[in-house]
Amino acid sequence: MQDSAVLNRLTGLRAALAAAGADALLVGQPENRAYLSGFTGSAGWLLIPADAARAPLLATDFRYWEQVRLQSPGYELVKATTTLAAALLEMLAAAGAHRLAFEADHLTYADYQTLSAAAPDIEWVPTKGLVMELRSRKDAAELAAMRRAIALGDEALAAALAQARPGMTERELAWSIESYMRAHGAEAPAFDIIVACGLNGARPHARASDAPLVAGEPIVIDMGAKVDGYCSDLTRTV
Hints:
Blueprint: H1 4-20, E1 24-27, H2 30-37, E2 45-49, E3 57-60, H3 65-71, E4 76-79, H4 84-95, E5 99-103, H5 109-118, E6 123-127, H6 130-135, H7 140-163, H8 170-183, E7 188-189, E8 194-197, E9 219-223, E10 225-227, E11 230-231, E12 234-237
Parallel strand pairs: 1-5, 3-4, 5-6
Antiparallel strand pairs: 1-2, 2-3, 7-10, 8-9, 9-12, 10-11
Helix pairs in contact: 7-8
């Protein structure tokens, strides 16, 4: 059974699909896929029928078969033994789809050519932002995850700065931040952590290097924590 958050998201998406005049939506963008299904694996495709009486489908390969059963209990699962194109006709038939919306801002042209050739009788409808529009409105659980990510970023920065000293390298300070976040509940940094001392701080996207921290020079730190799929972003100069 799907949890209430996923059900609400699918209901909102189906309303958007009806407005677009599509029978279903093919979803491969990773964050959109996780948002609609709970599945956090790196490879998979959703097919969401506009008709609520039809189950949403999720295709993935053998690497994620046990994981997807746990994370997406309300989805009809399709084991992709070769490629998505090989499983697509089965999925489209199950969804009753003839007019298929797809993520034009994610699906590559090469993949579009392959998939549309595999399903020549399907009308492909390019869409942009259908799921992103839903994601822009956060529910209580999402807001709580964001607050946890923000709080953890604050804690990690404070803990790392308490250890900072002249002669420590930028890379060592970045690792102090990352290791604290991972040890206290983050699944990963939100992005590659920037620690830039002195002149390095003039480069907005400097990479942490083996340059030493120098007493009296400013250090620009740009970092964030990823918690339950949601990211914080914090920049400070110390």
